[in-house]
Amino acid sequence: MVSCLGKQVMRIVVTGGTGFIGRPLCQRLLEIGHSVTVLTRDPATARIRLGPRVQSVGWRGYREPAGEWAAALDGSDAVINLAGAPIADRRWSAHTKERVRHTREGATMALVEALPKLQRRPDLLISASAIGYYGPRDEERLTEDSASGTGFLASLCREWEAAARAAERHGVRVVLPRIGIVLEKEGGALAKMLPAFKLGLGGALGRGIQWMSWIHRHDLVELLVFLLTKEIRGPVNATAPYPVRNREFARALGQAVRRPAVLRTPGFVLRLMLGQMAEELLLTGQRVLPQRAESMGFQFRYPTLPEALHAILR
Fold first, then answer.
1. pLDDT value, residue 86
2. What is the C-alpha to C-alpha distance for residues 73 and 57, in angstroms, rounded to an integer?
3. CA distance linking residue 17 with residue 40, whole number of Å
4. 11-181+216-239+289-298 adopts what CATH topology?
5. Can you give the pLDDT at residue 7?
6. 306 and 251 Cβ atoms separated by less than 8 Å
7. Separation CA 238–CA 154 (nearest Å)
């Protein structure tokens, strides 16, 4: 197998390429000069969003066994797997949990199961995971060597990563970026927070002492590109080097939009509204550090929260 390392131009396949992270990633890969193919449920919409330089191939994720879409993998240098239904769009019913699991673990399994049928397999699979892998951890400083935790998100991430690691049996190197809270104003968590904070109605959640491990979307995209060039395998924490407590995040966001941020939302209200999702996503957190990224020499453009928020909201 020919390694993709050192290649000037790579042929890269991206799943989730029209999403909040995938869209700017595809554009960045094109800027560098790589060839990009997106596997998507809606090729027509993908062509509109991503432009004619990105090839769009129909794919229904875990619902579709290896077929014509698998030809897009044949001869590619790397696959970046970002597929998955949103985790925080609705209360976690049994149906929602199953959908989230299928669109992550199931979609990843579909990609891996296609590998033995290829004439030339990709050298590298970068398959997204999340810091939910660590579960609620209070004050513990978490690196890639830390053990997994408890709860729905932790079990989901373990199964998601295991599905990706199965590609190693076919000679494909696997990298697992564990992604934190991604910040940019047109999507993700920040887009949901901004309306209330701009009205002066924002504030801490619960006690506000839970850690928030975040990353500016620009830095996440650059880190994913960076990982294409490094001989590394296994987990990489995709978070900024300076996580903050929830109350510090609320204070910084209030200052960024020049509004007070003192209206704390009690934990019991969030639990009544959102159930288990409130407990795992909002009222507990993880203090995650990007040890491997920094040891490889990755430079964060926005290492601190005030810098990130200023760049996003200026």
1. 85
2. 11
3. 7
4. Rossmann fold (3.40.50)
5. 65
6. no
7. 16
Bridge partners (DSSP) listed for residue 177? 236
Longest dimension (CA), the chain: 59
Which H/E stretch holds residue 272? helix 267-274
pLDDT of residue 66: 67
**Residues 54-65: tens digit of each pLDDT:** 999 999 877 766
Q: Which parts of the chain sit beneath pLDDT 70?
A: 1-7, 64-66
User: Which amino acid is present at 62?
Assistant: Y
Helix crossing, 22-32 with 217-227: angle to 10°?
A: 50
129-130 and 181-183 strand pairing: unpaired
Spans of all domains in the chain: 11-181+216-239+289-298
Residues 6+ apart with CB under 8 A from 107: 15, 61, 62, 81, 83, 84
CA pair distance 175, 32, nearest whole angstrom: 21
